[in-house]
Amino acid sequence: MSLDLSEIRQQITQIDRDLLKLLSERHRLAFDVVRSKEITQKPLRDVEREKQLLQELVNFAQAENYQLDPQYVTQIFQRIIEDSVLTQQNYLQNKLNEIKESSISVAFLGMRGSYSHLASRQFLKQVSESLIELSCESFNQVFQKVEKGEADYGILPLENTTSGSINEVYDLLQHTDLTLVGELAYPIKHCVLGNGKIDLAQIDTIYTHPQPAQQCSQFLQGLDKVHIKYCESSSHAMQLVARLNKRNIAALGNEDGGKLYGLNVVETEIANQKNNITRFIVVAKEPVKVSPQVQTKTLLLMTTGQEAGALVDALTVFKKHDIRMTKLESRPIYGKPWEEMFYVELEANIHSAQTQQALNELETVTSYLKVLGCYPSEIIEPVKI
User: Fold this and answer.
1) What's the domain range around 366?
2) Is 279 annotated as a binding residue?
3) Which of 39, 130, 165, 303 has its CA 20 to 30 A from that of 53?
4) 64-86 per-residue burial string, b: 16 or more CB within 10 A, e: under 16
């Protein structure tokens, strides 16, 4: 005799609750692990150990005939490992920097519900339970809020997997004394949001920020007779559509932000790339101390001479000192036609002897060199088996 659907669902609910309990127990063990590593000074990540663990779990599932796809098992435990690494990293960083503020202020582009707003909440949830949120109308205003001491942190998008680098933010980094203190990757899930339960065919005007429009260009090009109107941010677009309350208009935004404004999802999964991610940086007045045990990045700004091979000479320094370069971005220097500055992102801790030696050597082959920040990376690349 087969069970009815309600009984099956009750069993599933109970299993899900058991899984949550086990995940909580594993999460708590991460603190025991980091306290042990704190004593031994071992690096938080052991990639070979992670590979071995994943392979053993896949083999165990197959040996026990659990009928679980190896890729499914791998993806689940990659996420569990990521949680463990970030938990340990936050423990060390909070202890090292002695963060005790009861409330923290953060500046971001747009209003509540913007991607920058949601990213700021994700980044600072480990730091303070109380956030003072400061909406800004431009990237420049975000910098100004922090520079004037009106905000403790500023959250800024730096690059997107679909539309590439956000040049305005790179250019503003040339002219600030603020320092980078963190980064995070935030998944971007664009939706068409409207008033009430409407059909896509009813919409003749879509409000959006230029960045989401670029990231959803293929979808927008497929819409006949739909006018695209630009706003200061996605949150401005959502607020405007909610205020006008017309069934023929819509906004490009995210589902969570849409809920804040009472908007419904009309169409989802509309980005050119399904795996659409924006990397955000965090700026502050003072640098952070970074534990030598955590995965660390350093962002440099440099210029080289105009002679042949000058840039190659500079980049060879990193190879010589076995420092991995993760990004190289060039931007024009205002007032100097045909000359460029280079942003160089490294997997390196500025306080290590190896990095200091490389920077000393780099100064001899560059005409200008500035460290924009040294910060722990919250982007945990999953190991593959």
Assistant:
1) 289-376
2) no
3) 39
4) eeeeeeeeebbeebbeebeebbb
